[in-house]
Amino acid sequence: MSDTPFGFGLPPEEPEDGDEGKKKDPTGGGQGSGGPANPFGFGPGAGGDNPFAAMFGSMNPNDLGAAFQQLGQMLSYEGGPVNWDMAKQIARQTVSQGTTDGSKDASVGPAERTSVDEALRLADLWLDGVTSMPSGSVTTVAWSRAEWVEASLPAWQQLVDPVAERVGLAMGDVLPEEMQAMAGPLIGMMRSMGGAMFGQQIGQAVGVLAGEVVGSTDIGLPLAPAGKAALLPLNVERFGKDLSVPQDEVRLYLALREAAHQRLFAHVPWLRSHLFGAVEAYARGIKVDTSKLEDVVGQFDPSQPEQLQDALQQGMFQPEDTPEQKASLARLETALALVEGWVDAVVHEAAKSRLTSADALRETMRRRRASGGPAEQTFATLIGLQLRPRRLRDASRLWASLTDARGVDGRDGLWEHPDMLPTAQDLDDPDGFVHHEQLDFSELDKMLGEAAEGGTRKPSAEDRGEDGAEDDGPRTDGKDDDGR
Predict the structure, then answer these.
(1) For 285-391, where are the alpha helices, taking DSSP H only?
(2) Residue-wise pLDDT tens digits, 320-332
């Protein structure tokens, strides 16, 4: 990701030799001037890292009127906290530019679709023997990078909107109440620009991420529609390029991970909302540094939107140092570790006797998840949150120990309710959690069942007298047993 993620450049300095410098550079920019001739990077000399340049860089100066008309449309955006139309456009353009190693996106051919479908179906068969959860894949798909962008944007919207909304509200709160009515147009412009800037930022980040991910669950969160198991053949090939592992084994191992995630999210109905809720709870605890916003608002110059960009980028998000915020972060990190640890343990059990490179692929994936990468950078930039399962190895060991001690059913049964799952403290002492006495709910279930039937069940022989008549005890209404 570039150092100016929102795509605005700084205005160039005037050449030291005045008009003579302009004669040397007839475009008014380029190498001699140290940068493009306008702060937005439009025109033939625009830099490639600028997302606006991606949209307008091929235009000649006579087309700048149309370019600024589009910029005006951007500033007049009146939707939610993020301009998601712009995000999709920027993401698609980033994908079309290719990755840093020159890899370009391409449509998925029939042979690749068949290979992905066969790998995911075989992976599901292998998983049947190592988990009690049935298949969670309704369909299998092979996506290009652009198709991954289209499919994952709704999930990104759910994750990013809460933070962007806080920034938008903060922009209106930095002015005294008596001035807010007078500054309405300025605040509206800033909010529109904020939505556009977030749209550019998330679009560029998602576009970069599309060049790295191998499936729909790489970051531990389900980014694709429920029940849709997906692999990206082009990225799967890049993943295994330098591993000295047969491509079929790489594809099968990654298919096992994708299929295992699908089972977990399909058959643990509360898990998806639990993870997204943890992200949202963390976002609610982030405060916006209003002092920076006050400075920006006081000196805001619409011709220099990079001022607002810098405020958004540099130290604007500050997690609240409160018990609630710490609890939200711990909850999210533990949940991510438990998901990734379960997948790691289950996939290894399924692959170790079938894939000769299972250990090497496992270690490669563990390091990839632990070191972060584009996904971590995306969230760290947008909401100050890193989606790394910091305790992946601890969680994997715990799930493996649970399998040995309680069997597959006992291990997977812990996903029935979030309160049954291991906690962060249990990851510190996995043996204590694995071997602590399990509660026996059978007697309680029996008592509850009898209580539920108490109003309608027939009396047992123990409830009756010796002659078989019901013994209800002495009457208290002054009558005998015949009612007299």
Answers:
(1) 290-298, 306-313, 323-351, 358-371, 374-383
(2) 567 777 787 788 8
